[in-house]
UniProtKB/TrEMBL annotation:
This is Pyruvate phosphate dikinase AMP/ATP-binding domain-containing protein. GO terms for molecular function: ATP binding; kinase activity. InterPro entries: ATP_grasp_subdomain_1, PPDK_AMP/ATP-bd. Pfam families: PPDK_N. Residues 148-321 form the Pyruvate phosphate dikinase AMP/ATP-binding domain.
């Protein structure tokens, strides 16, 4: 019971609750390092929050010495990095000891160098995180957000990685073998869209596809995502396919391939605001298709809770000849 759990300083969740996954997500975000990193002084006073490795890097030079020592000596940095899949960097941080450095500022400089080395590697790697200053035209695979890429995007990322390491690419004259340029809006944006616009109850109960789509189109994407898309589109002058990439899509045992929406955009309007609006609308339509009648029915038949399904969105270059 809840009362008994409190007596032994434990947490408990009701497995029959309709919000079980949301409750579990909140618990893990707060307790397991999946939320923002909160810089504190030894007194417990909060100084600042950062959301990703890049923001951590930007603030590392400004961290008060007592705060840096507090977090570093308790492995807070390595735990937080590991929760984001940054296992190599987390392991490098965890191996460090106070005795390895003459003072805390030398340790600070070493931490910064470790992060910089990882960032340099990532720029030439197969998947890069989009940043405002990112030259998207020079990178083949970008991620927007920090959540999952979804099934379809994972497959594309694998193909992109394989081709980048393959030795047969240059063996054929006049043939270009590559994955079209891709940017993936990860599932954390989907979660935020559903929660901020309070769409979960409606999405799970409404059966009419058109009504559902109309409601989703009225929802607002996060300001951060809209601004990121605005920056991304500044360097994108080719037609786009806006495609679904859900967690269960292309799953080996419960495939949902073909169940969700794809939209093709010319991306040629002279007004940049209109181009941005079209991309945002297409993303909302893909989100809405997560809860269309056909995927709902299939989910029920394969004994999955629809709340388990999350949707990432692929923004993909359409390849072909340009015609006047």
């Amino acid at each position: 019971s809840l009362e008994m759990a409190r007596k032994i300083s434990s947490n408990v969740l009701n497995k029959n609750s309709s919000t079980l996954f949301s409750d579990l997500r909140d618990f893990m975000m707060y307790n397991f390092g999946f939320g923002d990193f909160i810089f504190k002084l030894p007194s417990g006073e909060e100084i600042r929050q950062v959301s990703n490795v890049e923001e951590l890097m930007d603030f590392f030079g400004e961290i008060p010495e007592e705060s840096l020592d507090y977090h570093a000596s308790r492995n807070h940095f390595s735990n937080w990095l590991a929760a984001r899949g940054e296992f190599k960097l987390a392991n490098q941080f965890r191996k460090l000891k106070i005795s390895d450095f003459k003072d805390i500022n030398e340790r600070r400089d070493h931490h910064i160098k470790l992060i910089q080395n990882i960032q340099k590697t990532r720029r030439i790697g197969p998947v890069a995180e989009f940043r405002p200053k990112t030259k998207s035209s020079k990178i083949n695979f970008l991620r927007i957000g920090s959540g999952s890429l979804g099934g379809k995007a994972r497959g594309l990322a694998f193909a992109n990685t394989y081709l980048s390491q393959a030795d047969f690419i240059d063996q054929f004259d006049n043939i270009i073998i590559r994955v079209p340029k891709v940017a993936v809006v990860s599932t954390d944006e989907f979660d935020q869209f559903m929660e901020v616009n309070e769409l979960w109850e409606t999405a799970l109960s409404l059966d009419n596809n058109q009504d559902l789509e109309d409601i989703f189109l009225k929802g607002r994407l996060s300001r951060n995502l809209v601004q990121t898309l605005k920056e991304f589109l500044k360097e994108v002058d080719y037609p786009l396919a806006i495609r679904s990439s859900s967690l269960l899509e292309d799953s080996q045992y419960q495939p949902l391939a073909g169940m969700y929406a794809t939209y093709m955009l010319p991306n040629s309007h002279e007004d940049s605001k209109e181009r941005l609006s079209q991309v945002c609308e297409a993303i909302k339509r893909v989100y809405a298709s997560t809860f269309f009648e056909d995927p709902k029915t299939l989910m029920e038949n394969i004994v999955h809770r629809h709340e388990e399904e999350k949707m990432a969105v692929i923004i993909m270059e359409m390849v072909g000849k340009t015609h006047d």
